[in-house]
Specification:
The structure is a single chain. The protein is mainly alpha-helical. Helix content is 78%, strand content 0%. The protein is built from 17 helices and no strands. Helix 13 packs antiparallel against helix 15.
Length: 398
């Protein structure tokens, strides 16, 4: 297999203040938080944005599809094309592009302008995630890398627990455009933090497309791709349309939706750290358990989600288990290719984001053709299939 590493003089975290190192970790986490929030914010504002442009919920769901498709392509192309550039420079440039995308969304005069902003978000996702996901080892002492990685990945459930509910509340109070303005300002603040806190990070791995392609020879990588595809397809095929479900089936008002999404997000944060603890001990069982519980919660929503108590309880289970999915998937990818961490991160990002796009697209077709309840049932069936396959899967074996 082609080598992925070149000798480069690097600043070691041992030579820097531990406090500055941790602040750098938090700034990277804030960048991913802003990106995750920008990506999934339309879930909480789906009906409002759709009404503004006179389109259906399914068509509005394309706002989730577009970034995922672009991110899946951008993860390898952007990372490989910029493989010799300082990684801090790339992170700063990408988060500035995120600010531009958010301000463009706020000013969108038509759905096509909104679509352009979502394409820009996809570019940022692909590049920032692939570079930032594995930076912990270069920012803190070796014995703290696991904790730092968990902090960076906590941005994913935090985007759900803080970003989306806060954006939904702002949209409810001041209009959906105001939510994107606030997100744009936040992106500028993250840019300042990255410039001030993250050290120079010369490229220490020169990742080529041939290296990425070579990883497909790993059975563990192939299994990781299939399992990630199924569980993310199930989740985003259903969760993208959770707002229409709560409005039409549970009969929850706009203001209460924020509370429901907040509870879901809190559960996601707990799930992220619980998953991080369990995955180091039993990655297969943890990943399979996530698929099984996501299946149970989405399959039961059409049956028990007509009442607020039932819907809320199932959202807690859903959030708790999906919160562990990214760390399970990333761990499986990384363990399957320890010699090529950035290349495995590229495949993780690409497979994850491509499936978000496909899930949102297929979920939109189902919700327009049938109902929000039907899309929950379909998502549950796919998650169950993932759980069965995970039980028989092989992790980290070449």
């Amino acid at each position: 297999m082609p080598t992925t590493t070149v000798s480069t003089p690097l600043a070691t975290p041992l030579a820097r203040s531990p406090l500055i190192g941790w602040l750098a970790v938090v700034s990277v986490m804030a960048g991913i938080f802003s990106i995750v929030t920008a990506e999934i914010l339309p879930i909480g504002l789906l009906t409002s944005i759709g009404s503004s442009f006179a389109i259906s919920d399914g068509a509005a769901g394309l706002m989730m599809t577009m970034p995922g498709i672009v991110a899946a392509i951008a993860a390898p192309t952007v990372t490989v094309a910029t493989r010799r550039l300082d990684r801090r420079t790339m992170l700063c440039a990408l988060v500035l592009l995120l600010a531009v995308a958010n301000f463009l969304a706020a000013a969108a005069t038509s759905y096509w302008v909104m679509a352009v902003s979502r394409v820009l978000v996809g570019l940022v996702i692909g590049g920032f995630w692939s570079i930032g996901a594995g930076l912990a080892i270069r920012l803190v002492r070796p014995e703290r890398v696991g904790t730092a990685t968990a902090v960076i990945f906590s941005a994913v459930p935090l985007g759900s627990v803080l970003g989306v509910p806060a954006g939904t509340l702002i949209g409810h109070l001041a209009g959906w455009r105001a939510a994107f303005v606030v997100l744009g300002v936040m992106s500028v603040a993250v840019f300042v933090a990255l410039v001030a806190l993250v050290p120079r990070l010369p490229a220490d791995q020169v990742t080529r497309l041939s290296v990425v392609g070579g990883l497909f020879r790993s059975r563990g990588i192939r299994t990781a791709i299939v399992l990630t595809f199924l569980v993310v397809l199930a989740h985003f095929g259903a969760y993208t349309y959770v707002t229409p479900f709560l409005q039409q089936v549970t009969r929850v008002g706009p203001g209460q939706i924020t509370t429901f999404l907040l509870v879901y997000g809190v559960a996601g944060i707990v799930g992220n750290f619980v998953g991080g603890f369990l995955v180091t001990r039993a990655v297969k069982a943890t990943f399979a358990g996530c698929g099984l519980l996501i299946s149970c919660s989405t399959l039961l929503l059409p049956l028990l989600g007509g009442g607020q108590a039932g819907a809320l309880a199932l959202l807690v289970v859903w959030g708790l288990t999906y919160g562990a999915v990214p760390v399970c998937s990333q761990t499986w990818f990384a363990a399957s290719a320890p010699q090529a961490t950035e290349a495995s991160a590229i495949l993780f990002t690409s497979s994850f984001q491509a499936t978000i796009a496909i899930g949102a697209l297929l979920g939109g077709i189902v919700v327009d053709a049938a109902s929000p309840s039907a899309v929950m049932t379909a998502g549950g069936a796919v998650a169950l299939l993932m759980a069965v396959m995970a039980i028989g899967g092989s992790a980290a074996r070449r």
